[in-house]
């Protein structure tokens, strides 16, 4: 697969696929920042413009492609927050914990469907 194709497929703002590794049931995509924009502090949500303290990578799960689990390796920078002087990891808007935003949305949708089915069996609540 072409890296450009994966980048387009993922539609992640300011990140592009640098490499992809396909295993039997997983696809790992190594992401790179396109533009070196200053990191957003996860402590206070501001851009401090201070120098980057250190870097790290996180692996987050994204939506499946053709029944393969997709994992994205994302570079994350650490900054010293000027508000409380602690080291904070940068905030990336489309990451929610260990998964992407859209993955979390899908899980949420699936669990709410299951939740509705369960409440249907108990009709007492609906009759009130
Ligand atoms: Zn901060």
The succession of helices and strands, N to C, reads HEEEEEEEHH
- What is the overall shape? globular
Average pLDDT across residues? 88
Q: What Rg do the Cα atoms give?
A: 19 Å
Strand content: 35-45%
- The level of helicity is 25-40%
Number of domains: 1
Low-confidence stretches: none
Q: Separation of termini?
A: 56 Å
Sheet/helix structural class? alpha+beta
Which compounds are bound in this model? zinc ion
What's the total number of strands? 7
Tally the helices. 3
Q: How is the main sheet built?
A: 5 strands, mixed
Q: Could you walk me through the main structural features you see in this protein, from its secondary elements to its overall organization?
A:
The chain contains three helices and seven strands; from the N terminus they run αβββββββαα. A hairpin with a 2-residue loop joins strand 6 and strand 7 (99-100). It is 26% helix and 39% strand. It has one domain. Strands 1, 2, 3, 4 and 5 form a five-stranded mixed β-sheet that branches. A two-stranded antiparallel ribbon has the order 6-7. The longest helix is centred in the last third of the chain and has 21 residues, at 101-121. The chain has helices spanning 3-10, 101-121, 124-127; strands at 15-22, 26-33, 52-65, 68-80, 87-89, 95-96, 99-100. It is of the alpha+beta class and 128 residues long. Bound molecules: zinc ion. The site of zinc ion has 8 residues, from loops.
């Amino acid at each position: 697969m072409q890296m450009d194709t994966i980048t387009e497929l993922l539609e992640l703002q300011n990140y592009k696929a640098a490499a992809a590794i396909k295993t039997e049931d997983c696809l790992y995509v190594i992401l790179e920042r396109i533009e070196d924009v200053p990191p957003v502090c996860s402590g206070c949500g501001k851009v401090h413009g201070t120098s980057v303290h250190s870097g790290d990578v996180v692996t987050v799960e994204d939506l499946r492609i053709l029944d393969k689990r997709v994992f994205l390796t994302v570079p994350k920078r650490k900054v010293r927050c000027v508000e409380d002087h602690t080291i904070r990891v940068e905030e990336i808007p489309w990451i929610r914990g260990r998964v992407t935003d859209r993955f979390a949305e899908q899980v949420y949708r699936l669990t709410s469907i299951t939740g509705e089915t369960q409440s249907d069996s108990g009709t007492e609540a609906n009759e009130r």
